[in-house]
Structures are given as structure tokens and as C-alpha cells.
Amino acid sequence: MTVLLPALAGLGTGLALIVAIGVQNTYLLRLAVSARLRVVAAAVVVCAASDAVLIVAGVLGVGAVVERLPVALVVVRLVGAAFLLTYGVLAARRALRPSGDAIQVTAEDDGVVRSVPAATASGPRATGRAAAVPPGRGPGGTADRTGPTMRGAVLTMLVFTWANPHVYLDTLVFLGSVANQQGVDDRWWWTLGAVAASCLWFGALGFGGRLLRPLFARPGTWRVFDGCVAVVMLAFGVLLLGGA
């Protein structure tokens, strides 16, 4: 019971910080409804492992070093702002000029979500039954567009995670300092709870988000979602440029 209390406290504190609408969560949700299962799994691992590394580093005292290097955070802030603004503009372009595509779950491989023309998605294949579409090909033998690649998804998630100065303040500085206030005996149990919070949240968002794939079979849903993504990315990019 004595070790359970600090672990639960760390779990609650970690969830309070991580469960929010942000660029990392928004992108992970996009992957959940548009990418292969193994791509989503890789993105979840990147998010959870990054948080674990940063939280443990904060407990070990790296947060104090970061606080003494404000220039490093400024560089990270500018790089992150540029990336967020670029991604936000691209998302806004997709929302304003939609391609008319919808996603479709096939029986091949690991449940890959494929993009097919909206006219096709409204036909017999949109009834929810698995479609026999050869990998990489659309109906009638035409090429179709699949979800994000493993390399692209992982690299983008790494940028969203490590080019965000707030992640250092939240994990290295805040969580690290709170963990060290638990005392020598309890701080690592508290840290374990905080790391478990990241694993729990990102796993639920990544794998649970795949349940929304039928909703994204409608092209209009993608337009609304990309519009929301654009607002989130551009807002966070402007805030980073302003030093918030």
C-alpha cells in the first residue's frame, strides 16, 4: 500500500498534464484513423518512450540544467513554431481544397485504411464489409493513396514531441521536481506512475482512435478534422513564436 499511493499520485499527475488537446495528440489521432496498425503502434511507442526518457531525466536532475540554458529552449521554440505553422498551413489547404477522398478498411495486412474516391465510398463498398482491394490499388485497378508511411509518421511525431519546448517544462522541470519531492524511497514509484500515465493515454488514443475509422469514411469528416488540425497547429505555432 505504501508504494501504491505514490504510484497512483504519479499516474494522476501525469494524466492531468497529458490529457489535453495538443499537437502531439492531434497528430496521433490522425494516424489512428488513417495509418496501418504497425505505424500507429510505432507512433505510440515514440510518444510513450519520449515521455519516459524525459521524466526519468527530470528525476535525475537534468531539468535543472535545462532551466539554466534558456537559449536552447529558444532555439527549440523557433524550430517547433516553424514546423507547426507549416503543418497548419498544409492542413488548412486540405480543409479548404478537399480531394474528395474517403478512407476504407480492407481485409489485407493489418487493417490498413486506404483512401478511395468519394463516389466509390458511397457505393456497395461503403457498407462496412471488408473490400477485396489489392494492396496499393484502388477499385478498377487504379492506384490509390494509402496512409502515412512508417518513416514519415515516426519522423513527424519525433519533431512534434522533441521540438516542443513545453514538453521539457512539463516533464524535465515540473514532473522531475515533483517526483523528487516524494522522498528517496517513493520518488521512483511516483515516476513509474507518471510513465504509466503516458503509456496508458497514448495507447488509448492511438489504438482506441481506430474505432473512429467508420466515421472518416465520409469525405466531409476529413474536411472538418483537417480544419480543426489547422486551428490547433497554427494556434500553437503562433503561441510559440510569441514565446508563450
What would you say this structure looks like, in words?
The chain is mainly alpha-helical and 244 residues long. It contains ten helices and three strands. Strands 1-2-3 form a three-stranded antiparallel β-sheet. α1 (4-18) packs across α9 (187-208), α2 (23-34) runs antiparallel to α3 and α8 (165-180) runs antiparallel to α9. Mean pLDDT is 78; it is low at 105-109 and 115-145.
Number of strands: 3
Oligomer: single chain
The first-to-last residue Cα distance is 40 Å
Mean pLDDT: 78
In the predicted model, the low-confidence regions spanning at least 5 consecutive residues are 105-109, 115-145
The rounded Rg comes to 20 Å
Which strand order spans the largest sheet, edge to edge or round the barrel?
1-2-3
Summarize the structure.
This protein is mostly helical and 244 residues long. It has helices at 4-18, 23-34, 37-59, 62-67, 70-96, 118-121, 150-162, 165-180, 187-208, 219-241, and strands spanning 101-105, 113-117, 145-146.
